[in-house]
Every structure is written in structure tokens, then in C-alpha cells.
Amino acid sequence: MEKFRNQLKSVRMKLFMTLSLVILLIILFLILVNNFVFGQFYLYSKTKTLKSVYEVINNYYNNLQDIDLETQLERIAINNNFDILIKNNQNVNVYTSNKDFFSTFGQMNEMTSRFNADTGEIIEKDGSFTIKKIKDSKNGITYVLLSADLDNGYLLYIRIPITSIQESVKISNNFLYLMAGFAILIAAVIVSYVSRKFGDPISELNDIAKKMANLDFSHKYRITDADDEINNLGKSINVMSDKLERTIKQLKNTNIELEKDIEEKSKIDEMRRSFISDVSHELKTPIALIQGYSEGLVENVNSDEESKRFYAEVILDETNKMDRLVKQLLELMKLEYGKREFQDKKFNIVELEKEVVRKSQVILEEKQIEVKFKTLEEICVFADDFYIEQVVSNYLTNAIKHIKEVSGKKYIQIENEVDIEKNKVRVRVFNTGEHIAQENIVRIWNRFYKVDESRNREEGGTGIGLSFVKAIMNNYGNSYGVVNKENGVEFYLELNLKI
């Protein structure tokens, strides 16, 4: 029973039922048209022919030169299956195509009275002619009859039997019934073939889809040379199967990576704790100093004005350092989490570099450091000049802090290397000095990381300068980094050129 229900729901059965219903509807439509339209169309056509013949005969009588009128009338009657009767003004027969035409209607007076009576269905009436559908009571035949006055005063009668059209409709209907039966039988054979041709591939695609739902991608649709929708669907199913298989493999790999990421998360939590520890360490010293010197002022440890001024200056200096550290941390957080909007514009990077060097001129002269420029006079880039100045300034400050004499040389070199193909310029800041240990190459970009673990307050800085560089460059998606050179260390960054 269940199998029978499934067969009823199958594409093959639905296709058969649909096609059979369409054929039956078409046959029914043809029968309705045959019954209600064909007869009317036939009557309309014959009426039109009657009027045309009337005009032709009228013209014949108006133009009698060189015309064999009787021959022409006979040809018209034979070609159209008409009965034609023409009477003159004295009701005498001028012409008749059928000798029974007059006798069928009886004497002329009787016939005339029949034509003028209100019997029959008027099809069309004009000033010169009348067309009726009448039934002869003697022979039971229905006619279409035209009675008209010719221009010369003659009377014209043309009739055509229409009983045959009813027989034609009946025969046509019987033929259509017979054709409907044959059509359904033929449809069954065609549907059986078509459903097998289209149903089997659909069943195959259905099986493949079920296997795909169970994550089995081993079965593929057999592609044929046919360029049809089912073949294209099979191709799409195969492509989808391959993509799903690759995607699931990627998901498995991602899952493995996710497990690794979970392990990394514990490391990230450790880094957060380290971050809090570093911040606490950075704020602990200035707070302790402020507390100590504040207590000294309160206890009036040194009563002289010079000592009090010194205590106050230390407190103010440490307060400024704390304020600067907090602001730097807030700015760094905004940069790292994408909360800072950059005001990009076109500017000359060489001019910016020279301005940064000029601001550091005092400490450069104090430490007797020579700055060399190995660059063009103008290189225009597109970026936020405020933040790029911080990057260059951090690189220069870092170079000044760690510069040392190597092989009798002590200098800082700023170089700009233009790459037209990549539309980039690489800014290099080199200083002579000791190399950075390989394990510290990556660490130096972390917040509060200092190669100098002693963290000297005078020389050590806050340890977040390079973190600023990292955050700014990550926002632009341009490369940055540090490499050890022969006699020192080189920091670099890349910017987009602006022609």
C-alpha cells in the first residue's frame, strides 16, 4: 500500500496525469468550439459569400456588353453550391439554376408571400436585400436565403442549404472523441518513455543528495553530452558536493586550529595578567615617589624653601609622567581596537622626517650624533601625518636611545626607498649599535616590553612606543619591522605613494 502511494506521488505518475488532463482539456475545448463557433463561422462565411454574389450579379445586369450571362450564372451556382432564381418585373422566370427551385416553393405568389412573411430568422437586412435562415416545411431542409432587388428591377433569390453543417459538426465531434482516446493511449506510451528519461536522473540526483545529507560525497552524477537542465543540475550537484567536501575538511582543520586557539587563549589571559602587572609596575614607582615626597612636605622634613621646592618639583614631574602614561595607554587602546579615525591626506614624507630630526636637535647635539639623509627631496605619500610623525619620532627616539659607536662610527641614517610597481615607499631608520637578540625581535613590539630589564627611569621610557608603531601600521595594513644590519639595527615602515 505504501509503495502504491509512493508511485502515485512519483514524478512519472504526475507527468502522466498532467499530460492526460491537458489532452482532455484540449479535446473538450475543440468540441466546444466545434459546437458553438464552427456553425456560426460557417453561417457568417456563407452570408458574406451571398452578398458578394449578389453584387456580382447586379454588376452583370448593369454591364451586359460581351457577357454570356447564363454561363456566368451557372459557374457561380456550381462553384458555390447555390440555387439561383431571377424574375423580371412581370414575375416571369429569367433564369434558374435548379428547375426544382421554383417548384419547391410552389407558385410565385405563394413563394413571394413566403419571402415577405415574418417567418424565419433574419440574419441581415439592408435596403436592397434581406438574408434569412428559413426551414422548408415540405422537405425539412434549412436554408440561408437571400432575396434582393436588382438595379434593373429584377428579383434575385439565392439559397444555400445549411443542414449539412450540423451533420459536419456531429461527425467532427465523433472524430474528436475517437482522437481523444487515441491521444491518451499515445500519451501513456510517450509519458512512460519521457518519465523514464527524466525520472531516472532525478531519482539518481535524489539519492546523491541524500548521501550528501549524510556527509557522504563519494557518489557523483554521471554527466552526459546532453545540454539540458537536468545535466546542468547534475553538474551543479557535483560542484556543490566537491565544495561541501572541501568546506567540511576546512571546518575540521579549523576545528583543530580552534582547539589550538583555546590553548592560546590561556596564554592570552596570561598576557593580560602580565599587562596589568606591567601597568601596576609602571604606576607603582611614581605613586610611591609622590607619596614619599608628599609625606616629607606634610611632616616638614626639610624646612628650607629650596628642599620644599625640590619635593614639589619631583611630585609634579611624577604626576606629569603618570598623566602622560595614562593618555598614551588610552590612545594605544583606541588604535588597537580600531576606535581611532585617521585623517589621511597627501604630504611630503621627507619634510616630515626633517621636522622630526629638527625637534630632536638638542639631544642629538648633546650626544654628538650625526644624522644622515639618504633620500630624495620630495616623496609624497597618503596617510595621517600626525600618526606617521609619531611612528618616525618613535623610530628616531629609539635609535638615539640605543646608538653606540661601532668600528669608530656613530650615526643615524634615514633613507626612503621608492617602489613604483607596488606604489610604496619604504622608510628606513638605521643606527649604529648592538644587534637585537633574535628572541627579542618579535617581543619589542609588545606593550611595556623593554630589552633593558632594569627599566631605568631616565633612559628606559614607558616601553609602549613601538606598540604605537605596531597599532598604527596595522590600521593601514602596511608592513613594518626591524632587521639587524652589519654595524647596527634598522627599523622600517611602508607607506602608500601619492602621485
Radius of gyration: 55 Å
Structural class: alpha+beta
Residue share in helix: 55-70%
Unreliable parts:
105-118, 453-457
What order do the helices and strands follow?
A: HHHEEHHEEEEHHHEHHEEHEEHEE
User: Quick one: biggest sheet?
Assistant: 6 strands, antiparallel
User: What shape does the CA trace take?
Assistant: elongated
**Alpha-carbon distance between the termini?**
80 Å
Mean pLDDT: 77
Give the tally of β-strands. 13
- Determine the number of helices (DSSP H or I, runs of at least 4 residues): 12
The spatial strand order of the largest sheet comes to 2-1-6-5-4-3
- Could you tell me the strand content as a percent range? 15-25%
Secondary-structure topology with pairs:
Blueprint: H1 2-9, H2 11-62, H3 69-80, E1 83-87, E2 93-96, H4 99-105, H5 108-116, E3 121-125, E4 129-135, E5 142-149, E6 155-161, H6 163-213, H7 229-299, H8 305-336, E7 345-348, H9 349-359, H10 361-366, E8 370-374, E9 380-383, H11 385-402, E10 411-419, E11 424-432, H12 465-476, E12 480-484, E13 488-496
Parallel strand pairs: 8-10
Antiparallel strand pairs: 1-2, 1-6, 3-4, 4-5, 5-6, 7-9, 10-11, 11-13, 12-13
Helix pairs in contact: 2-3, 2-6, 6-7, 7-8, 9-11, 11-12
Describe this entry's structure for a reader.
The protein has 499 residues and is of the alpha+beta class. The protein has 12 helices and 13 strands. It has helices spanning 2-9, 11-62, 69-80, 99-105, 108-116, 163-213, 229-299, 305-336, 349-359, 361-366, 385-402, 465-476, and strands at residues 83-87, 93-96, 121-125, 129-135, 142-149, 155-161, 345-348, 370-374, 380-383, 411-419, 424-432, 480-484, 488-496. The protein has a 6-stranded antiparallel sheet, sandwiched between helices. The chain has a 5-stranded mixed sheet with strand order 8-10-11-13-12. Strand 5 (142-149) and strand 6 form a beta hairpin. The longest helix has 71 residues, at 229-299. The chain is elongated, with a radius of gyration of 55 Å. The protein starts with a helix and ends with a strand. Residues 105-118 and 453-457 have low confidence and may be disordered.
